[in-house]
Amino acid sequence: MKYGIKTLDDFNFKGKNVMARLDLNCPYDSEADKLKDITRIRAAIPTIKEISEAGAKLVLLTHQGGDLEYHNYISTKLHAGVVSRLLGKDIKFIDDICGPAAREAIGKLNEGEILLIDNVRYMAEEMTLFETKLKLTPEEQAKTIVVRKLSPMADIYICDGFAAAHRDQPTLVGFEELLPSGMGRLFEKEYGILSKIIDNPEHPSVFILGGAKIEDAFSMMGQVLSRGVADRILTAGLLGQLFLMAKGLSLGEKTEEVIYAKKLDQYLDQAKKILEDYSGKIIVPLDFAYDEGGRYEIAIEDLPSKFAISDIGSKTVDIYKDIISEAATVFINGPAGVFEKPETEYGTKELFTHTAKSDCFSVIGGGDSISAANKFVPDGSFSYMCTGGGAMVRFLSGEELPVVKALKKGGNIPER
Fold first, then answer.
1. Is 153 exposed, middle or buried (0-12, 13-18, 19+ CB in 10 A)?
2. What angle do CA 128, 131, 132 make, to 5 degrees?
């Protein structure tokens, strides 16, 4: 047991029916009908292999895609093929979740066999609106259809989806009410790495926060600054733009249109307060870049821009690189700009490669960050790449994640 949670070492899997909840959510190329980045699947393989080789009848559960924005929302059939290839072993797949067909397939599993059921977010009770609107307790989630139908088919529940540990959904927190529960190897590893950052980081400690999803950053920034976990926060992406708006700068209609469309203006007051409370520790961009048939840069003194900003500028990159060079710990969540396009990849490419080459302890996390890291730092020279984005940020805010709390409770249920 580690951190109050059972590990794989605490179970005898021989002949047991095991439900393993993973996070295999991957970027998806709809035109080619393929998964663009399989980092999360690759990271889950050690747990899948260990449980299977111990003689378990293993059922894999995962979600795919964002259900609110209906983004990358597809079946997990492609994932089954990737898992089979990485394991070097055929696994079964069924396009059902907890209906008669899925339960029949589970019942037919032999020792060592693996079955991946379809995208659990096809179930209404696994959707984000169900979570955020109803706010069910774990005890109530244990009574949802998916848990009631599948839990009798299992002897043990394992969660190896740290990337989803901040979510409060039935397949993540409901099974622990009914089954002996523990964490997989990936969950165990990521929990340990992030604990090191928050409990005993080497200083100077620098956080680089970018990307388009900035909601969780605001729950985390004040915490890591007030507790001395972070000495400086370098802002990029929409976060950097929002902080400049909080300073009273006009970015330009096209850029601010994105901020308002995503309803991120609701964080302007929080941004102002953080700037007041931690003056000098929040570092904002000095210039930006936009794509208008090529890369063009603009200093903040020359704002507003009639073009949409999509990267930080070279002056900002140079300043950020100097700060990174002096850091002992660097934590990255989110790219600096639109890294998928050659015209606006510069900020992300330079910051990521510079961090990877430095002598600091470097941790990078989040789906887009991992995709960018695989593009610009394919040799894996970061100290650690965390599969979690929102979970990682929430963990660093000092909050006990719903899945962590559930696993601690499920660890007290004796095996049958």
1. middle
2. 85
Looking at residue 65, its pLDDT comes to 92
CA–CA dist 172, 304 (Å, integer) = 45
Number of helices followed by number of strands (H, E) in the chain: 17, 17
What tokens were used for 188? 């165990």
Q: Which two tokens stand for residue 142?
A: 């244990």
What is the Cα gyration radius of the chain?
Answer: 22
What is the tens place of the pLDDT at every residue in 175-197? Answer: 999 999 999 999 999 999 898 88
Task: Report how far apart, in Å, the C-alpha atoms of 354 and of each of 317, 320, 347, 349, 379 are.
Answer: 10, 10, 11, 8, 13
Summarised one tens digit per residue, pLDDT across range 350-362 is 999 999 999 999 9
Going by C-beta distance under 8 Å and a sequence separation of 6 or more, which residues neighbour residue 12? 54, 415
Q: What is the pLDDT of residue 198?
A: 85
What is the model's pLDDT at position 109?
98
What local confidence, expressed as pLDDT, does residue 257 receive? 95
